[in-house]
Each structure stands twice: as C-alpha cells, then as structure tokens.
Amino acid sequence: MRLGPTRGVVVMILLTLAFFVASRTTGSGWLVVLVALSLGVIAVGILGPVFSLRAVTVDADAPTDALAGRPFDIRFRVETRSRVHLTSVEPAGTTVCASGGTGDARVIAERRGLLHEVAVEVRSGAPFGLAWATRRIKLTLPHPIEVAPRVTPARLPAAPSVARPGEEHRGSRQGQGETVRTVREYSVGDPIRLMHWPATARSDQPIVKELESPDAPLLTVRVDLNTNADEAERRASVAAGLVQAGLAAGRPVALHTAEAGGPHAGFVGSMLEAGRRLARATPGPLPASTESAGTTIVAGVS
Amino acid sequence: MSVWSAIKDANRAIDPEPSVALRVAVGATVMVAVVALLAEDIVGTAPAAAALVGVPAGFALSYAQRFSDALVLKGFLAIGLVAALIAFVGDLAAAAQAGFVNVQVPLAELFVWVQVLHSLHVPARRDLMFSLASSGAMLSITAALSVSPLLGIWMALWAVGLVLSLTLAYRSQLTDAPALETNPAPLTAGVTGSVARLVTMVVIAGMILFFVLPAARSSRAFTFPMNLPSSIPLPNPGGFSNPSLGNGGQSGTGSDGSNRAAFGYFGFAEQLDTSLRGRPNDQLVMRVRAPAPAFWRGQTFDTWDGRTWTLSDDEATVVGGNTPIRTRPTLGDDRPFGEEFIQTFYLEAVGPNVVFGAYRITDVYFPERFLFQLTDGTLRSGVELGSETVYTVVSHRPHVTETALRAADPLVHGVPDDIADRYLQLPDVPDNVVELARTVTASAPTTYDKIRALEAWMAANTTYSLDIPPLPPGADAVEHYLFETQQGFCEQIGSSLVVMLRSQGIPARLVVGYVPGDRNPFTGLFDVKASDAHSWAEVWFPGIGWQGFDPTAAVPLSGDAEPPTTAGAGVLDYLSTRLPRIASTLAWALRVALVGGVTLVLVSIAGRLLEQRRRRRGQSWDEAMNELLADAGLVRGRPRDTAETTVEFVHALVAGPIPDERLVGVAAAIDDAAFGTADLSPERKHDIEETLDAILTAHPPSRLRSLAR
After folding, report:
1. CA-CA distance, B84 to B50, in Å (whole number)?
2. Which of A74, B88, B266, B492 is spaced 20 to 30 A from A48 at the CA atom?
3. Given a cut of 80, is residue B661 above it in pLDDT?
4. Average pLDDT over residues B6-15
5. CA–CA distance, A240 with A270 (Å, rounded to integer)
6. How far is A56 from chain B (nearest CA, A)?
7. Whether B167 and A127 lie within 8 Å, measured CB to CB
C-alpha cells in the first residue's frame, strides 16, 4: 500500500504551522485549540485512507473471450464503507468511482494471451481527500479470459493448384463438401446445419461436423512464437490475419501452435476458435509439419 | 489570436463544481468564521455588514454564474481586492504607530473583504477550498484576539463545517470519474452519520494532541495588546480612585459592609481598615494572560496603627512618555532584572486605577502615555480603568527558591536604614503578640524559616473564616485575631504576619491584589473574580527584593512555580469543576444550532423552489420536461449524467427505479418537441404531462414507498 499527500494537506499543514507560531507569540490559548483541531483533521485525513482501503474487498468476473486492443467490460463487485477509485491496471482500464456495489468497467488488453487474473488499483482518500492511499490487488478470475491477438490483414500466399488436370479450380467455402472429416464441440457461430445430432445425442454437449472441403486447398498456418514478446505478438496477429483470409476464401485452415500442454495441431472453423487457439499459443516446439499435396504451409509466421 | 481572445481563453470556466451541498457546507463554514469574528467586535461596521450580506449573496451568485467566464466580474474583484489592500496598508501605517498588535484588526478587516470578494466567484471546487482555508485564517485572527470562552462554540461549529465540507469535497472529487454502479449512491448519502463519526474522531485526536502541544506563550518580539475604550480622566492625577466600591466609598458604613458595591474589595483604597467585614462576590473582574500563576499585586501598605493600614508616602511621580512605559526601581527593589514574566490584563469590570502585575514591574504597555508611580512601586493611572481596558505588564522576577531565601537573610546581612525606617516601624504592639512571635521563631535558624514557622503556627492554631465577629472598639486587630477569636481571613492573617515579623526585626509590608484565579486551559487565561481579591505579606530579602508570603493562598515561589508546559494541563480539573455550567452552555448551544439548522433547511428549500420556478418560467416545454425527468431520476437514486440524451436517460430509468415503458414514449415526445420540425399541439403536451405525472405517482421514490408501507 502506498500513501501520498495532496496539495490540500500541504496547505493545511502550512496553515497549522502558522497558527502554532502565532500561538507561541501572541499567547492565545484558542490558537492552540485551533492547532489541535487542525492537526486532528490532518491526522484523520492521513490515517483515514489507510483504514478505508484495508476494509475494501473486490471481486471480478469477465467474459471468456476478448480481442487485444479492443475494449471489453469486466464486472467488478466492490465492498467498501467509503467511496473509492478503482482502476484496472492489467488489463488497463478507465478509472471508475465505486461506492459499494456491482458494475462494469471498460478495459483493454494490449496483448493476446490467457488472463487468469486481473490486477486492479484501488485508491482511497477517504474521508477528506487530504492523502491518497493506493493498494494493488490481484483478482483471480473464475475462468480465464482468452485474449485473441489483433488481426493484421494478410494476403494469402498463392495456393498450389489442387485442381485435377483439365479442371478449373473453383474457390469454395469451407464446409461446402459432404464428406465428414471429423466432429468437434460446438462453437459460437457454427451453422445449425453442421450439428451432428447422433454425436450430440450421445454426448452431454452439442457436437458439430467438420466437413471436408471438396476442392479448396488446405491452409496450414504454423505459428512459431519462439522469439521476443513483441515479435511473438506480431506473428500471432499475422497468423490471425492469415486465418481470417483463409476462412474468407473458404479454405480449410489448420493451425499449428505450441501450447502449455505441448505442440498442438488442429483445424479452426471460425475466427473465435482461431482467436482462442492463438490466445493459448506459447513459445515451444511446433507439431511436425505434414506437408503434402494440396497443403499450403504458411511459413511467414513460423 | 487577439489579446482579448487570449484573456478569455485563459479565464474560461473550468470544471464548475456541481454539488450544491458542498457549496452550502463551505458557505456555512465561512459564515461561522465571519460571525465569530463579528461576535468578538473586532472589525468595523462596514466590513461586518458586507460580510453578513455579501458572503451568502456571493455564494448564491457564484453558483448561478458557475459556467460563465465572468470576465467583467473578475475585473471588479481585482479592483476590489486592490482597494482593500490599499485600505489595509493605510490602516497598517496608522496602527503600527500604536503597536504591532494593532495590525491584527486591519488584518482581520482585510481578511473579511477578501472573503466577501472571493465569495462572489467560487465556480470550481478549488475555489471553494480556498474559501475554506481563508475562513480558517480568519478564525485564527479571531482566536488570537479573543479572550472569550464562548469562542469555543464558534470553533466547534467551524470544525463541524470543515469536516462536512472536506467530506463532501472528497465525494464530489470522486465523482469526476464515472460511477461503477448503475445507480451510484448520491453525494450526500449517509453524510450525517459519517460526519458525526468523523467529528468525534477529530475531537478525540484534537484532545489528545491538545494534551501534548506546548502551551501558548507571549513573545517580546511584538508589542502587546493595550486598549482603553473610554478615557475618563480622574479629578486628582496620581490620586486614588475605585468606582467598584460604589457610592459608599472605602469608608462604608461600618463593619457589615452591606452597602458596598456588589463586587468591590475594600482593600483597594487609600487605607485598609481591618475592622471592616464582608467580601466581594464572584463577578469576573479581569482575565490575565500569563505563562504561570503569580500574585497580581496592586498596592502596598507600610503603616499599621493596630486597626488600619495606610501608606506613609503617597507622593506620585509621573513615569512614561514612550511605549512601553518604563518604571523606576523603588525602595527595596534590589535586583531589577530576573526572569522576564509577561502578563496581559483584560479588565472585565470597572476597578481601581491601579496597574496590577507580578513583582517586579519593569515595563508597561499602557493605552495612555503616562502613569503615576508611588515610592513603594505602586502604579496608578490618570484615567478610570473600566471594562474592556487592556494593558500588558512586563515583570522581571528574581528566581526565588527556598535555598536562595535562606541564603539572603536580612537578619544576617543587615537591613539598610531607609528600609528599616519604613518597613520595621510599629505602633505599640501588645506584648503577648511580640512574645508569641519570639517564641514561635526562636528555633528557626533563618528569616525564611521564621516566616514559615509563623505561617505554620497560624495554620495550626487559627481558623480561616470569612464569617468573623466585628472588631470591638479599641481592640488591636492582631491581638484580637491571635488570642481572642483565632478566626480571620486574609487581612487578619496578613497583618498578623507582618506585625510579628516586624517585631522580630524583619522588614515586611502588607500588599493587596489578586490571587492568580483559575486558569482556563482553552483560552490560556487566568479568570480573576472579585472574590480573588486578597492581601498578604511581603518580606524584604537583601539581593532579592520583596517576596510575598501567604499561608492561605497556595501561590508557589517564582523559582518553584511550574508554568503549564502543555496546553492541556489542567483541562480535567477545569472541566470537572465546571460540568454543570458546561452542560447548560451546551444545551444553549444545541438550541441555537437547532434553530439555525431548521432556518438553514427552510431557507435552502425556499431557495430551491424559487430557483426551480424562476428557471421553469424562462424554459421551453421540452427543457422543463427534461428537468422534471432529471429531478425524478435524482430523487430516485439515478441522477442524469450530463452526457446522456433524454432517451438514454429514460431507458436507464426504465431499467432501474421507474420500470414503466410509457416513459419511453414520453422521452420520444420530448425529443419531438425539442428537435422535431413541427411544434407539439397543446393537447399532446398536456397528455404527455399527465402521463409523466401518472408514471411518477405510480413509482414514488423508495423513501416515500417505505414511509407509505
């Protein structure tokens, strides 16, 4: 906890000092009473914020997904006997005034990643605002926020022709084919027609089909984050841009990343899914390359 | 950018303070400081009237103009401040000639003018805080000049106002940031309880600090207070006068003293008749600011005839001409310099034309240029000394301890002839008195021990009583006291001590004056009542001078006296003896506060209603409706944000305290009226008003709901 005086307390101390000097020259007892009162106010004004902050408790809840550089809301519940200023430091947010209750504060995560906790600064000058005490509190979130990287618009590298000789390549969107490549858990944004009802019936959660694109070449994006933090952030952004471009072009997109649990390779069907994968991505060994015909290896980010 | 634009830009309104509650709190606090100053009658009529009217009016005007650049007003304020400063410098030059302390009055007036002018333009919170600090400075001037215990009430009120203002300012400062909660608590929510707790904490902290802070003291760096409200010359310059004795004068009608003035002490006269009876009452006669208790000496008597004391030589010499008036050493003043001891006397009632002070007075800051000094050192003024007279006496007290007095023995070192002639003279003292003195002092090795032996004998064998029988005609007062009644008060005791000491060759005289009185730890003043009038013995010691002795008043020797080192010394004793009076004063203060509070609330409500009416009269329909909505939200705990549109605000109300979808239609109609191309028909407006009225009636503020339940 940090304690800092304000200009107000400096003025009060100077005034009190002047009263004291006057009491030592004029002999006025009332001036000593005034000095004692002023010192009483200063003492309460300086100690008050410390005691006030000790009694403050804060909880936080947040959405599961966020995008780096884009504002989102974190819900704070503040218990306090006096009013305080609350500022989210990590992720950075605006300062809000809390008088005891629940409300949303807008924050911006500057980098992608998994946020398991939120660091906030609580400031109190109660009761007089003569001094401000600041306390930094780390709040563990009930679930981590998966902050996807910024999307750097990217142009797809020229895809190797996968068209059979004599056929003209037709661009198509992913999932336009009928062959089921695999099934996976439902993600927000998946079309209802992709629901795999038999699998859903056997499972306790919705399951969707991933269809083999009949003709679009596979886009494999390998994201190597074994570099410094800024460069890793840039690579993740570029990868997000490539995924976006690939999905927009209707190509099946596979994302190769390293995660805390080890190398991870998998198809992504939406930007939400891609964002989550990139949020979880860490420096580490990538999965083995599975270069084969009809596959585009995007090496620009690896 | 033109110069004018640059000036306007530099003076544009910045963050006007939105809280009316804060403005009212600061205004009330400032007014308390102003009224405290006026109650002490320190400033003249013009600044007093200006402050009483100008400060509240200024705060009101300032609130109305808070969004304005107020360039013209600022110009007038600057001119006003310069004028006040010029007047102050003029007063300063005049006052400084009479003494630096007189600068405090022009300074107080300057502060009043600054406060009045500043209150005309306090748009922002920092301006309000400046007003608050300025009120503290003004109160400090009042505190420096006041000797009244009632100032405590004003200081208490000011402290409450300070705590309230700072609390609201802090809360208002926090609301500069957006609120976390959808329905944040209003600024004044729970402020009463909060302020009550904080005031308690501040008072407790203040009391603790009061016990450890050093006591106030006067400094020679300044000249001292002196005041003479009316200069009434006495018919006999250098002579004696004491209006407090009333028409009966000193002689009175005899032994019961019944026709004397209520509070006069017959010892303050040209002679002291020990056959007179009766004592003064408890009327406050003066307050004394001094670093330690001492006898406040008035005059001495050297000639005893068995019943009455007189002064053998009352030839007066004029002293003075400069400030301070320097006195001359008189017979027996062996050591002119010692510890400096400054006392300021604030007379509360008319009294003798005697200048009081601890032995030995060297300088007097007196409102007249001259005083009359008698050969025994007594100082008389040439004018009547009525209430509100103030003068300061600088004494130099020899550092006297028992050891010093034992070493300076007049019986060993000898008594000069002039002192012996005057202070050893005795009439025919009864033999039994002389024999008693000889017997009691026989075993005492030094003069000091002889004095203590006589005091101890009197303490053991006589009784102090104010109710003693009349002195029979022809009886010797000392013999009657020591051998007949063995009852007496200060005149009998002091006279007996002086006579017995003289009978043993020890120079002594009788002194009349006042005992120190009770020290008020808050004002730092000794409150001296008429009943504190006293007489006691003074004994001459070679190399030291005159030293007072009195078996009835516990006034320590100057070397043994322990001045109060901390301001709070004696607080508990003082409070415990005055609890009933304090309780009644508090009850009175509470009544005043209650009446004042109710008046303030009524004035505030009336002002608000008037303001609303005035604003609505000049408003368009949509503005008036918006204001109604804003007020409705405010009283239901959802104030309107300045950035919110009507529709946004109404949606927030519907989601919160007024869950009624019809409100959205009302908002749409208000927006139509404000921004639509065609005016709303009067019928439509009437419908909307009725709808809003119905909605608000159906959803009263929560407090009303709970009351209804």
Report:
1. 13
2. A74
3. yes
4. 68
5. 11
6. 15
7. yes
Chain B residue closest in CA terms to A125: B170
Which residues lie below 8 Å from residue A143, measured CB to CB, with a gap of 6+? Answer: A64
The whole-angstrom separation of Cα A139 and Cα A58 is 8
Strands (E), B224-382: 271-273, 284-289, 296-301, 303-304, 308-310, 317-320, 325-326, 339-347, 361-365, 370-373, 379-380
Segment A134-173, tens digit of pLDDT: 999 999 999 999 999 999 998 887 655 443 333 333 333 4
Q: Which residues pair with B78 in a beta bridge?
A: none
The string of pLDDT tens digits covering residues A106-138 is: 999 999 999 999 999 999 998 999 999 999 999
Which of these, B589, B148, B566, B37, lies nearest to A36 by C-alpha position?
B566
Task: Fill in the amino acid letter for B633.
Answer: G
Which helix (H) or strand (E) element contains residue B687?
helix B682-698
Q: Does the structure show a pLDDT above 90 at B608?
A: no
HSE, side-chain direction, 13 A CA sphere, residue B175: 23
> What residue type is B222 in one-letter code?
F
- Residues forming a β-bridge with B535: B512
Which tokens sit at B465?
């009583």
Distance CA A186, CA A208 (A): 5
DSSP codes joined into one string, B248-288: TTTT-SSTT-TTS-SS--TTSSSEEETT------S-EEEEE
DSSP assigned state of B66: T
Q: pTM of the prediction?
A: 0.72
B150 touches chain A (CB under 8 A): no
B42 burial (CB, 10 Å; 0-12 / 13-18 / 19+) is buried
Q: What is the C-alpha to C-alpha distance for residues B696 and B484, in angstroms, rounded to an integer?
A: 93
Q: Best mutation site among B170, B173, B175 for testing chain A: the one with the most A CBs within 10 Å?
A: B170
- Which of the 8 DSSP states describes residue B656? T
Average pLDDT of chain A? 86
Percentage of chain B lying above the pLDDT 70 cut: 89
The tokens describing B294, both together, are: 């001492």
| Residue listed under structure tokens 């009042």 | B142
Cis ω for the linkage preceding B360 (within 30 of 0): yes
pLDDT tens-digit profile of B200-244?
999 999 999 999 999 888 766 565 677 777 778 888 888 888 887
* Residue B19 amino acid letter: S
pLDDT higher at B28 or B613: B28
Q: From the list B155, B213, B219, which residue is nearest A25 (CB)? A: B219
Q: In A189-270, which residue ranges form alpha helices assigned H by DSSP?
A: 197-202, 229-248
Q: Which residues are CB-contacts of B297 (< 8 A; sequence separation ≥ 6)? A: B356, B357, B358, B359, B511, B513, B548
d(C-alpha A216, C-alpha A235), whole Å: 25
Instruction: List the one residue out of B467, B341, B436 whose CA is nearest residue B397.
Output: B341
Residue of B nearest to A95 (CA): B177
Q: Return phi, psi of residue B210, to 5°.
A: -60, -30
Which residue of A11, A28, A126 is in closest CB contact with B143?
A: A28
Q: What is the rounded distance in angstroms from the CA atom of residue B608 to the CA atom of residue B633?
A: 17
Cα separation, B297 vs B288, whole angstroms: 13
Structure token digits, residue B682: 């009067």
Q: How many residues does chain A have?
A: 302
| Average pLDDT, integer, range B276-298 | 86
**B216:A128 CB<8 A:** no
